[in-house]
Model the fold of this input.
Amino acid sequence: FNITPGESFKQDFFLEPDAFGRAEGFVTDLISGQDIDSVQLVTDYGIVATTDEEGFFSTTLPCCETVISLEANGYLTRRYRVNIQDGETITLNTRLIPWPFSDFGTE
Done:
């Protein structure tokens, strides 16, 4: 195709990264120490992993600087700014704080 002077052209595209690293770790409750399942690991790319019944997650991510959020119902969200290098594995063992705080100490 040809674009002549005065014309415009719009094209959406997505660049595939050519370098990848890994993020993995365990997520536990800060108060009880219990494993938390179904925690979602969220990046700029959306939900990229969910913890298993032992609170463990492991996922491959493109190399870059990004914010990783760990989100679960009943807990405050925890965020980490990371810079993953090609072939690197980062470990994010995390303790989430239960919410609401008014439930602390009740049975």
Observations:
- The chain is about 0% helix and 45% strand.
- Residues 17 and 33 are 37 Å apart (CA to CA).
- The mean pLDDT is 87.
